[in-house]
Every structure is written in C-alpha cells, then in structure tokens.
Design brief:
Mean pLDDT: 88
Structural class: mainly beta
Number of strands: 10
Number of helices: 1
Radius of gyration: 14 Å
CATH topology: Lipocalin
Number of domains: 1
Largest sheet: 10 strands, mixed
Order of helices and strands: EHEEEEEEEEE
CATH architecture: Beta Barrel
Oligomer: single chain
CATH class: Mainly Beta
Shape: globular
Distance between the termini: 26 Å
C-alpha cells in the first residue's frame, strides 16, 4: 500500500491530556474503539500534506485495557493495513510501540470523553508515490 506507513504510527503512542489536569487521563479512560476524523501526514521537507480520511480512507484504533492496541488503516480503494503493539500514556504524551519494530512513536495528546487528538509524531510517508518514504510528522484526531 503506497504511502501509508503505520510502522511506529501507533508503535509508540504516548498520550497526554490538555484538560487542565496535572495528571492527564487514566489509561482506563482511553480504552475503547476510536475512529479517525483526520489522519494527516505532513512532510517535513516541503512535499505537502496527505490526509488519509479526507481522501476517503478509514482509520480505526482499538486501545485495550492490557496496554495493547490494534490500528487498521484502509486507504480509499485499498486494502486494510493492520498493525498492533503496545501503548502507554502520561500527562500529555502517548507512546506506541509496534510489535516487531524497534523504536516508538510519541504524540502530544489532548483528550476529552469523546475526542482523542494525537499530534507531532515523527514518521515517514511516500508523498510522491515513488516507493521511497520521506520524513513527515503525523497528526490524528479520533472520536468514539
């Protein structure tokens, strides 16, 4: 699947809440099924921005109580790409570690009962479809 790179997308997901609390959300608050309203790759080298959801794709994230996750990204007209691993959260950071991969992704996190926003994780994406991934940041907004 050209361009969609979930390696580390939720391989290192560190979540924090910007609810004015100094403790952030409890992990149990985050457990459940989340559906993306935005999954935006932003090139760090000026190649543009791609939003998987705006282009007609779907993204579903399941955060489990045992600190595991499953992420399913289905681009418009494409096949589902499923990744899984572990997740953890702190005050305003979510960290995700994809099974079988080294490293992790860390996102700045904001949380309300119905919205989870993860921004700024370093990743890569094939912006020009040439088979080579370019540096990017990833921003995702989920709702329940």
């Amino acid at each position: 699947m050209t361009g969609v790179r979930t390696i580390g997308l939720l391989s290192a997901l560190a979540v924090a809440a910007a609810c004015g609390s100094s403790t952030g959300p409890a992990a149990s608050d985050l457990v459940g099924t989340w559906h993306a309203t935005r999954m935006q790759y932003v090139s760090t080298t000026g190649l543009g921005t791609v939003d998987i959801v705006a282009a007609g794709g779907t993204v579903t994230l399941v955060l489990n109580a045992d600190s595991t996750y499953q992420l399913t990204v289905t681009p418009s007209g494409g096949s589902p790409d499923v990744s899984a691993g572990t997740w953890s959260n702190s005050i305003d950071v979510m960290t995700v570690r994809e099974t079988g991969m080294t490293g992790e992704m860390q996102f700045q996190m904001t949380y309300t009962a119905t919205t989870l926003t993860l921004t700024g994780a370093n990743t890569s994406y094939d912006f020009n479809g040439d088979g080579t991934e370019e540096a990017a940041t990833l921003n995702v907004t989920f709702t329940r």
